[in-house]
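FOLDING PROBLEM:
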Amino acid sequence: MQSRVQSSARVVRSRAGFAQLESLEPRLAMSITAVGIGGVFSDDGVIPYVLDGSIDDHGGLRAQSIAAGIGGGAPARSYPVDDLGLDDHGGLRPGFEDSFKPYDHSNGAAFLRRYGNSGGWYQGRDDSYARAEFSFLMEPAQGATLADSEGSWGLSFLHTEWEDGRHEVDVRWGSAVISGSAITWTINRVGREARADTDSITSVTPGGKLLISHEGHESVQLGAGKQLALYIDLDRADNEVSTGLLYRIAPDKTMPQIAGTYRVGMVATGALARSVSAEDAALLNFVLALDADGTYQQYDTADYDAGGRTATAAGTWMHDAGTVILSQAGRGATWNFAVGGDSQLIPRFYLTTGAADQPVVGLAARAESATTPVFTVAQSATGGNAVIYELHDDRTWRRVDVAARSGGPALRSEPITWEDRKDGLQYAAGISVNGGLVLFRRAASGLWSHRILSDDLAAAKIATDLNIMVGADGLAHLSGLDSARDLVEYAQSGRSGLGGEFEWEFHHRGDELRTAGLPMPAFAGPLISYATRWNGLNIAGLSDDGHIWSVWWAPGMTGWRSDDLTVGLGGGKLSGGLTVYQTSWDGINLAGIDDSGHVAVTWWVPGFGGRWEQSDLTAMFAGPGLAAAAVSSYVSSWDGLNIAGFDKDSGELKVYWWSPAVSGEGWKVTSLAAAIPAGSPMPAARLRGLAADDSSLNLMGESEAGAMVRLHWEPGMGGTWAATNITASAIDA
């Protein structure tokens, strides 16, 4: 029997693909064990195997597999997986040792519980379809007892039977009820009546394997979450072998809880297999996106992983007491899934109009990212589009088009991003080409959604200078100037509405200031915003006469006020814009460039009361003048203060810096051109600095060609910096 696999995914062999595990301490990584069942397609049917192994701290799966044979299995062999290759969409693509030829195409779904999965799958095949293989994988239930398995389970398994020199492969399904030491089966197969049987469970191993008395060769392996299990029968002595899945069913989950993106892998037989492969058995896989509004989209797995978002099928879905039914638009066909007792779905049947149910054995694993964003940087693109670049903890950059991913309008402003600590989700906001304020939200499922916040609140639109600040109370504030250059703000109220989304309120700060008898500053340069440790909220910018104005509020005040921070300080006129950095001793520092190119810092500490000071760092420390258009700042975890910009004469990127270690020497100046290898990409505009949570120091900006470039330093790199063309290296996500 030749096998067919409905997939065209690429093989990934890079050892870097499992960098996520490298962040684990070795003793933790070595404690991760893996078990699985699978099958090799051959002319003698689908020959199943089981495997048992562990994951080392480099991501290699070291396992032994046992193939079906007389007496319960053939001799163990080394399973040839070298690198599990987890990817950004929750995929699993094993690499292979040099002694084993990899498949031409492979795909899968991650199974580690560290990423919220109770089980995953793998499929591989050659272009000629001469070889094909599948596996279902999970972490075992260490220390499980018989009581952990008690209750009702759904069941589906692949069965191969030999008779008179011929073989028959089919999918069978039903249920299992475990009570005490007895397991009662109800098993169905196409065209036959259901069969019931009861066996005894003779023992439970420390790894969660239930040994069953039936002819001495059956077992059930519990998964770590105790919601998924593997069914194993490898003894060919009776000319029958079977492997499959047992799963708990969760009837009470809601559609929003079920909604999300899944990687679906399955084995089909009979009419369904022949419809895609003209053979008796076939492998199918696709990405399934279930939206909470009851619609869904289906994608080719390989195309989805490559960044494609063209649906191969779409329709509606419903949930009823633990069963999800997908109705394909225009095809007269439905998919039937069971809702697992964890975060997964179990494919059970495919039905076309006028045909009998066609059972499958499969698993739909949640497709959340197996990596975590370390930080993000946004960029506006030509044509009214904008993207977010995310650096993940696997050292890979992802490019996210939030408008396209959410179905929202294109943006004419650079989006701003933040993670909301109240729900742990990522948010973004931007000004649409139509002028509306768009709020984007990435759900735990990984799916982006959007709302036009200005329309929802029927409020004034932000025209320019969109900013984000998050108060000490965790509430987010989006501010900017409207078309009349009045200051307006959209702020979270602290309440949640329908669906758990945060409520927002609108405030016209310009009108509030005038009502209080205070001036609305005539802001001329770009605005900045920042929140203090004591929840002081501040929006600042330059007026047309080069003064720093602040519109601010602090706890205990009845309303917002505006102040000219420059008046009386005697400093020069500032131009271009401001950058703000705060210190661990609660100092606030607003840095800008005066009309001579000098770096002027207007600063405040709590001991000053209402008084501010201004220092000319260029004059005090004989530093270079900087161009006014691209000043930025960042503060390291060791209280290192940094102000970066381009030399106003040479255009060279330079950094004014100070740290407690050199506090007696004052501020110093470093040229990053000398610290970057020759020929490296360099930012030339729109500079922004960031001291990230991974202890890296970063300067990012656009090159002369418009690419987003990152310069960064990390502890251990000495005095050298590294350069990355983010635009060229990012993968679509």
Observations:
- The longest helix spans residues 270-277.
- The radius of gyration is 30 Å.
